[in-house]
Each structure stands twice: as structure tokens, then as C-alpha cells.
Fold this protein.
Amino acid sequence: MSAGGRVIFAGIVLILLAVPGGPYRRAPAPVPVVELHRVASASYFDPARVNPLFILVIGSDVRVGDPRGGRADSLHIVAINTKTGAGTIAGIPRDSWVPIVGGGTEKINASLVVGGPAGTVATVTRLTGIHFHYWALTEFSHFRRLVDEVGGIDVRVPYAMQDIPFSGANFPAGPRHMNGADALALARNRHATPNGDFSRSENQGRILLAALAKFHADASNPLKLGRYLQAFRGNVLSNVPASELLSLALVARRIDPARVRNIVLPGQAGTEGSASVVFLAPQAQDVFRRLRATGAG
């Protein structure tokens, strides 16, 4: 992006931030549909100077409303190597049997109910040794709306799936432009997949990659970027300073989607009492070690 482009980019950001009720201005008693927060312990923070940069993306199973009232049924570590533009999206199976911060040993998705987003971040940090710089949280209805408001996303469906009675997924294999309802159906499908929740987590990673690819293509155009921010205004609350948001967007703009790996933590389905759970494999520790070192899982 040229120097002139950066000035326009910054101008758009600042104008949108100045609009009353904008995405990063807290309105009285809002329902937080998507939240992006900087870790509380940081003072001034420039994401471009951190390597690797870690974001925890949390999808709540709440259909409509406050996502903090549900379970964390979608969990993905987004690790970005800010020097190379490469990265990793690492899915954590929702039924992973782990110690929950503030509770006992439970399925990891219970961490959101027990401790809110901070509790989920703390639980994943204890599991992985990764200290997250940001976290993001959403629920069903606003996920659909966000996808629609940015014009949809292009996803390559890996195999034919018919899961109409459950998730609503009904897609042939191959490339598909998805609106919000389509993307949510793909994200929820675990029946018409080769490996249940493991496949579902992998497909959720595909959606994140598709969103990254769209942003990567559009963000160099200040007008398109402005439309992105306008779409986020109605769906995002944040306490991230404007200077950080601009820097984070520029970091995201430099990421090459072709160099971002999409993986799911290895594990094995089992039971704990009467509950169906996932026991993470010892190899997951190797993934965490590589992520901590370079962002490459």
C-alpha cells in the first residue's frame, strides 16, 4: 500500500471511529455479538511488532443474543508470523477433555459458560502455553449477518454433503460462493462428514481462510475497506485503540492466504462417564511448541 493509500486508510478508520455508536464506541448496555479485545495486561501494543501474533477465535452455540451465554462450540487458534506473512489456523475439537480454568476437568466448550471469554482464553492458554494477544467471539445470527454484509465468501467444499435435517448443509463438492446461511450450514455440519467434529473443525478453518482471502483481496481498496468497517460497526464491540486497529488491519492485509495452514489438533474420540469426549493426542504438544516458536503448526 502506498503512503497516500495509508493516509486514506487511516482517514476512513478515524472517521468511522468518530461516528456515534460506531464499532469501537460502547453504547449503553449493548448485546456484545462479536468482541475483539487486547489483553488487559498490555499497555501500548503494536501487533506488527509481535511475532508470532496469536488470536483465539471463539464461536458460541447461542442462536441469537449474547454469545457469552453459550458454549464455545468452535475454537480456533490463529497464529500469524508477522515477518513472513505465513500462519496457521489450528482447530481445537469442541469435546476436548481438558482442565477448565475456574472449574474441573470438562469438555473445553464448557469454558465459555464457566468463565466467559476470558475463561476460555485462560483455559486454552493453560492447555497450549500460548499467550493470546486478542480474542474474538460471535454467535449464529451475527455470523450470518457479517458474511452477508461483506458480500459473501468463496469456499471450496471438500466433498459433497447433505445434512439438511441438522445443519442444513446441502452442497456438491467444489468451489462455491456462500452467503451467511450457507457458511453457517457448512460450519455446523458434523454428520455428513468423513470424521465428525474433526471434519467440522477443519471446515470451520476453511471458512476462516476464505474470509482472510476475501479481506486480502479487498483491503487494498480504501472504499471497500470502508464498507468492511461499516459492516463490522453493527456487529463488533471492541476496546482496541484506533492505532492498534489500523496496525492489525495492515498486518492482516500482508498475510498470504496460500501460506496459512489449516489444521485440527490430533486426538481420539472416547468416553468419560456417559459423555462422548475427545482425548487430545500427545502429538498436540508438538503442534503447540511449533506454534509458540514461529506460528507454524
